[in-house]
User: What shape does this take?
Amino acid sequence: MSRPMFDEMNASPSEVRAHYLKYARWLSEQPEEVMLSRREEAEMIFRRVGITFAVYGAKDEDGSGTERLIPFDLIPRVIPAHEWRRMEEGLVQRVTALNRFIHDVYHDQEIIKAGIIPADQIFQNAQFRPEMMGVDVPQQIYSHISGIDIVRAPVPGGDGTEAEYYVLEDNLRVPSGVSYMLEDRKMMMRLFPELFTENRVAPVAHYPDLLLETLRAVSPATTAEPTVVVLTPGMYNSAYFEHAFLAQQMGVELVEGQDLFVKDNFVYMRTTRGPKRVDVIYRRVDDDFLDPLVFRPNSTLGCAGLLSAYRAGNVAICNAVGTGVADDKSIYPYVPKMIDFYLGQKPILNNVPTFMGRDPEDLKYILAHLKDLVVKEVHGAGGYGMLVGPAATAAEIEEFRQAVVAKPEGYIAQPTLSLSTCPTYVKSGIAPRHIDLRPFVLSGKEVQMVPGGLTRVALKEGSLVVNSSQGGGTKDTWILEN
Amino acid sequence: MLSRTADHLFWMSRYTERAENTARMLDVNYQTSLLPQSAAVAQVGWEGLLTISELMPAFRAKYGEDGMTPRNVLDFMVRDENNPSSIISCLRAARENARAVRGALTTELWETQNQTWLELTRVLKSTGFERDPSEFFEWVKFRSHLSRGVAIGTMLQDEAFHFYRMGTFLERSDNTARLLDVKFHAVQSDFFGAASEEDQEYDFYHWSAILRSVSAFEVYRKVYRDVITPERVAELLIIRPDMPRSLAASLNEVVNNLAVVGNDHSQETQRRAGKLRADLQFARIDEILATGLHAFLTQFLDRVNDLGWRISQDFLVPTH
Assistant: This one.
């Protein structure tokens, strides 16, 4: 492939970008064996601390069961202050508009009346929850924790010397990964403290504080000292470590569905001293499993009657029920229009140009250009249900063609973005690998975030899939202060 | 605190304690088997160990009637993952319980529990368990010491801590009682006055091995400053409140921790725990021996079992 590449660290083989100069000099002075032993040390620590994720159906022979480490790369992804400031403004704007949109969908539906988004796009969406119609939630906030996936790619038609940030995806249901952002930083400071005296890296460790503040801010008005809990599906969930970690860092209880019950439309947890009322639930369980009386009747992960208590305004659920209607891939193309409609602003962050299978003109284009496009299933997640045209075999393309023809509205397509790369440790030494970025945006009394996010890296050469379930790793993300 | 969290903490400490005591029991048996005694005596030792843990049927099912060799018993009790009472199963269960509430543990305590589990396989290999299991038993004991020490040294002394401690001592009272039962049973025939000189010598090694298994050999010398007699061994391990692994000391801790967490439902449980403690507090060893040690210990184990069930009902898996 001769498409232009943009590397975060190296402007050219001989030229390091200004914000990476100090780091690159430091790196060149490190003996190889020292870096190697640091890598081993990092792995050992991650194992001992139990920073692992579960892979369904996998089994290790060393007795560690299904727990795997997410590979951690020693070379940080560095973002200069001015770029971050702009990104932050864009994120606040985008998440504000998305929250307005969800509120609108479940109330007056002005955006449909104005003809901006077709009604069936919303009502036929499996993530639309009619149960939420007319329900008022505190502060009118639905997505309290939003994970916005951002990639950087060369400007189309440019020579590759300039690149732009694009929002690839909004995650408004139960976005995960923030614990890796925090643990990666801790690890870097532990392994290379000297780097942090040389570089002014903005701290991220106060994230749990901001999160708690956000959760408390949306507590039902009736309580002065709200009881916040984190609801987890349990220790066999792939993100269990993160659930336990956040509960511990916030100093709140980590509960499972079986610990909760509803009585007279209030939610309680079973404690050693009897029932205790719960005011705010930071749930890491999908909508479908929250309440067997309303959603999946066989779910044991939730709590019967929860939705009724929620609708009565006696408990806050974060993120709210029904946010999925706004982070769907078929709604994504409309986000720039939402920003204009609700805020009267021009979008600060770019969307990736998107072709929608439901649009006949777009569909024609998609089918004619399958080998150049990334085709995504509208409801897919985690890197599954996706075709990367340029990397696919003829058979895979044919398979997708049939799938798209059979159900055009189930697919969108985007040009294959050449995601920016960052130098990364691989078997043969240091080589460029594609990366993305997921900042975590908190919406409570205000919209805020810690400077940074989770940088994921596709460890396979040429691969654009950064998901941990598909062999992706993570890097520490540095926002450099001036 | 959350009932489920308390439940996991309670069982985390119980399994850790059980792993330690199993290692202690196996170690004393192994040490005794090195004495110049008849094969029959050694055999009785291994059999008693399985009987007291209620594992004889499972063992027979796996190894058959003729399988009662030290090697097999050690394998079964140490690294058989299908035996829920083996050391490996206990350490796994301790770690699983810890993982379920890792957020409620201090970082150091969680890492200690996790590290024990991660190192287990390697230690089994590197300590030459096949040749001499003592070093491995020592490791299990010290991991348990470490975990207990880290808990005491780092945990906030709130409810979580008290349930954690309650688990430790309820399990310990059970395990010490079982150890006593099996060891006194082994020499029951010549318990009241050994016949020959040779037997007396054997007795010395037998009783000192029991004392060593609960780290009480030096304690015994210090307390009694006299030869080792079975009566005093029993007294030390049953009613001395200052002997940290005795029944009385364990019950003291159970009662004290229970008192701190007591709730609206737990009066009866507290009453029964207090009564059991009082029975030990005002007991005399000659009375216990006169009525029969085995009967006494059997009843004691039933009462401890009842306490465990009641604690579960009142606090951990509440039915109200």
